[in-house]
Design brief:
305 residues; alpha/beta; 6-stranded mixed beta sheet; 12 helices; 6 strands; 10% strand
């Protein structure tokens, strides 16, 4: 996954798009995106504050800046994934031709551009038309960052399709764990997820949630010399595991997997099994259907047998 190079975190000034204090509210409610999708909005300069900034306090908002003049649009992929992720993020689509002030605020030079908003702060994701698998990688990385910052809420469905997806509303079963994460109580969240898994061991969402929270907890206080330790002593299993965690948090998924597979090959007995289990936990964080996980599973099997 290539690094975003069109902007920098914190370099985008959104103050000009915030509704002035005492100003009139934007006319009308949220407008669903033209291409459909329960979690996709058409956003304008008038409702940017209410439909992007304010909504980003609860759940990540992914802003797609596009133009009807651009060839090979990204919109269908973004709308499809916003529906598939079922409220883990809200997609806000903005036509830069009709909303030049938004384009100016983001410093857009070419479209499409995709930027996330977390608690009102912009986080650049990528520029240009990407395939679904590549976009999914950026979204998964964004959600890991969101959890690390205590943003665990889900976006509410919008527009006329909201009632149609009411049955798919967030399951209150996970509310205790998600609230604990939001409050910064990682131990409480871990306990809540473990309780759910005792009740239903095959609960994939609880397993993924537990793995994400445990990853965040492990990477809260990383020793400054951990990379040096790992490089100087490949047999230092603790250092290899921690560097892999840090790499995953930073979006370097393939690097994290490769490090642990190499460590599996270099160890034996209980140490080898510990590394294997740790790698399986990182697979849960990224997602079983992710291409990188599928490939890493095959490499792990080859390393084991």
């Amino acid at each position: 996954m290539s690094q975003s190079n069109f902007s920098r975190p914190g370099a985008v000034d959104l103050s000009s798009l915030r509704k002035p204090a005492g100003g009139a509210p934007a006319a009308g409610g949220a407008q669903a995106a033209a291409g459909g999708g329960a979690y996709a909005l058409e956003v304008t300069e008038a409702n940017f504050q209410s439909d992007v900034i304010e909504r980003s306090l609860q759940a990540p908002v992914v802003v797609e800046l596009w133009s009807p003049r651009a060839q090979g649009g990204l919109g269908d992929v973004m709308i499809k994934l916003s529906t598939e992720y079922a409220g883990k993020f809200l997609l806000a689509r903005i036509d830069v031709d009709a909303n030049p002030q938004v384009a100016q605020a983001f410093g857009v030079q070419a479209v499409p551009v995709v930027i996330a908003i977390l608690r009102g702060q912009p986080v650049p994701l990528f520029q240009g038309v990407l395939g679904e698998a590549e976009v999914r990688q950026y979204l998964d990385q964004l959600l890991t960052v969101a959890v690390a910052n205590g943003i665990t809420g889900r976006a509410e469905p919008v527009g006329a399709v909201a009632e149609a997806v009411a049955e798919d509303a967030p399951n209150p079963r996970y509310e205790k764990a998600e609230n604990a994460v939001g409050a910064g109580d990682l131990d409480g969240a871990i306990a809540a997820y473990e309780e759910l898994l005792q009740e239903t061991p095959n609960d994939a969402e609880a397993r993924s949630g537990l793995a994400r929270v445990q990853l965040v907890k492990r990477t809260q206080d990383v020793p400054a010399d951990v990379r040096t330790r790992a490089a100087d002593n490949p047999a230092d299993v603790e250092a290899q595991l921690l560097v892999a965690d840090v790499d995953l948090m930073g979006g370097h998924v393939d690097d994290a997997f490769a490090r642990l597979i190499s460590t599996v090959q270099a160890t034996s007995g209980d140490e080898r099994n510990a590394v294997r289990l740790h790698l399986l936990e990182l697979f849960e964080v990224v997602g079983a259907d992710d291409d990188r996980v599928v490939k890493a599973r095959r490499r792990l099997m080859a390393a084991l047998f």
